[in-house]
Structures are given as C-alpha cells and as structure tokens.
TrEMBL record:
Its main location: cytoplasm. It comes from the Bacteria. SMART domains: REC. This is Transcriptional regulatory protein. The lineage of its organism: Bacteria, Pseudomonadati, Pseudomonadota, Gammaproteobacteria, Oceanospirillales. GO terms for molecular function: DNA binding; DNA-binding transcription factor activity; phosphorelay response regulator activity. Residues 5-120 form the Response regulatory domain. Pfam families: HTH_11, Response_reg. The keyword GTP-binding does not apply. GO terms for cellular component: cytoplasm. It is found in: Cytoplasm. Keywords: Activator, Cytoplasm, DNA-binding, Phosphoprotein, Transcription, Transcription regulation, Two-component regulatory system.
Amino acid sequence: MSQYTVLIVEDDQQASYTLEQAVNQHPQFTVCAAAETAEETRQCLAQNPDLILLDITLPDGDGMTLLREIRQQNIAASVIMTTAERESSTVAQAIQFGVNDYLVKPLRLSRVHQALNDFVAFQNKLEESERIDQLQIDDLMRKNKAQPRTRKTPKGIDATTLATMIEHIKLRSTPFSAQEIGDELDLSRITARRYLEYLEEQGMVSMSLNYNTGGRPKQLYHIVAQA
C-alpha cells in the first residue's frame, strides 16, 4: 500500500484542523509540513510533498499564484484547492492549472475524505501498468461521480440514538461539547463525539475550537442546518 506525504497550506485554524484530521485518519497519508503563508509554503516545497492542500487566500499572497509557480517549476506534487472562492472564473483557472480537486469552504470532513480517496484511486490506476489503453485513459480523465446519499447509518451509529441526539441538540441555542451532550444523554464522551463527528460529516453540525481554556483547545459544536 503506497504512502503519500501532504503539505497543508491554510491560515484558518478551523479549516487547518479539518484538513489535518482527515489526513491523519487516512492510513496512506502523513502530514509532512504545514504552512500559513505563501513564503512558508515556498520553503516547505523543499520537502517534496506528494500532495498539497492549498488555500487560495493567504496573508501574504494567494494560492493561485503559488499554484502557477508550482507548475512553472515542474514540481511533481498534486494539488487540491481549498477555498471559499466560488467564482466560475477562479474554478476554471484552477482546473487549467491541473488541480486534482476543488473543495469549497466551510470544509466538510466527509468531502475531504472523498478527495483523498479519489487521489489514491487515481494513483493506483496509474501504477497498475506502464502503458494504458484509451478506455483506461477515459476512466482516469473522468471525474468520479458523487455517490447518492443513503439513509442507512454506518457501523457504530445506531439510528435510534442518532435520532434522539438530533432532537436533543436542536434545543441547544449555544455551542456544546461532546462531554456535555454525553452527560445529558447518558452516553460516554467518546460515543457522543463519534455521533457528533458523523453529524458534522452530514453537514448538520459544525465544529469550532475554543482556545480560551488555559490548556488544550476545546471542541465545540453547533447546529448549522435543519436535521
């Protein structure tokens, strides 16, 4: 099983956390470096990452300029853009520079997982043989179609418990932690967090980090869509 190194270029703490979480959860990826500015990114390129998760808006420049430099310097790294930019001209420019994917903020953990899996699948197909035929090329060039959503819950997520949690957190008007929800529903903190992470993947809740704790940042959740 091939292993890939990732450079995360992101100055937003929440987005950076989501990207790092997705990479760390995938057995074939390792974060080799993280940068918050264009200048830091240029220095990190010396580590020859296999994949770059690249934000467009940076404090001292923009990711599109960096992407252009990466291509002009013939750096072999693949690039996935992460941005709040939705203008069609920006998307078109990113595609012209050969990005593997384009992720729109706010980032969803499940969508980042999909992008990483698509990258692995693409690499696997390239490594299958030295020469490939037209059908294989067509398959490589064709963007993977989104899978239809299903109501079936994954392993470890009980539908009844999930429904109870959704109804419970609908009543919350302020951010809440996994520990708080666990205590209120008689669940362990780990179990409550597993359900909240699932709801985050489904776009029903959003997670932010509270740094005013005097110690490690605290994960807080809030409703972002009607469950």
